[in-house]
Amino acid sequence: MFAFQDNDTDAQVPALGKAVFPVDRIPNWGAMRSSAEWDRPYEAMTEADFVPVPSYDLAQLTIPISSLTNPIIEDNIHLITAKLFYSTRYFAAYDLDADEFTGNHAGVDLKLPLGTPVRVIGGGIVREAGDGGALGTYVMVEHRLKNGEKFFSIYGHLRSMKVRAGDAVGAGQVIGEVGFTGISTGPHLHLQVDRDDGSAKHMPFTPLQPLTRNEAAKWSVNPITFIQEHVSASW
Known about the structure:
The chain is α+β, with helices and mostly antiparallel strands. It has six helices and twelve strands. It is globular, with a radius of gyration of 18 Å.
């Protein structure tokens, strides 16, 4: 890997490339019935335990979980899995049924097994890799777009890191493993994408109160939307 400094020119920074999701599959949480199943680490799960990453569909994600589990039927398993996976939505309250902009969570929480490899969503430079307090062990990567915009993707609550500050990374490169460091009740990945706030050293955006959609747009973007917008990039 190559190390760069904060004053890197755009020409030195790796291209964002085709954006990717931080994981390419997830456990079929809705089909699991006991803690012995859902508490297994990543390396203890088998191919049969995994399903493709579900879509981030708020119409489905805000369906009350109680209506899907009393009783659990086969047709609802994929919805339960999606709700559990996207466990806290963009600027949502910490409630499994919450819609966006009901809380101050600046990112999306993804329920994943302990030790799941985490991939960077696009090419860039690691700006921070260490202890982030509430975020626990985290990695922050700077991305620069062709139009000059800067964004920062943040990966929180990691068990371990595979990169250091200054490393250049490419889209899809494994940068760490899912953990539950910092303020966390269980293994998951906190995924956040911040806009550049103009400061010399960017710090993860941490609002103290719920924001409106317009207020949030000044400081961050929905990480799922960001990935979707750049998934077909040709540069």
